[in-house]
Amino acid sequence: MENEVLVALFLTHFPGFRLDHVQVEATVAVVATSIQPTSGYPKCGTCSYRIHSRYRRHLTDLPVCGAAVTLELAVRRFVCQKPLCHRQIFCERFVDGLTAYIRRSQRARATIQHVSVVLGGNAGAALLTRMQHDVSASTVLRAARLLSPIVPQVPEVIGVDDFAFRRGHVYGTVIFSLETCRPIDLLPDRRASTLATWLKQHPHIKIISRGRSLEYEKGIREGAPTAQHVLDRWHVLKNCREALERQLGRDRTAILEICQDQVPMPPPPRTQSEQLCRTEHQQQRQKVFGQIHALSKGGRSQRAISRTLHLSRGRVRGALAAKMPPPIDRRQRLPGILEPFLPYLQQRFGEGEQNAGQLLRELREQGFPGSRKRVAQWIQIRRTTAAKITPGPYIATAVKNGPIPPFAETMSGESDRAWTFQHLIWVMLRDQTKLDTQNQHVLAAIKARCEVVSMAHDLTQAFTLLMRERQLQAVEP
Question: In what residue span(s) does the Transposase IS204/IS1001/IS1096/IS1165 DDE domain sit (predicted)?
Answer without folding.
Answer: 158-247
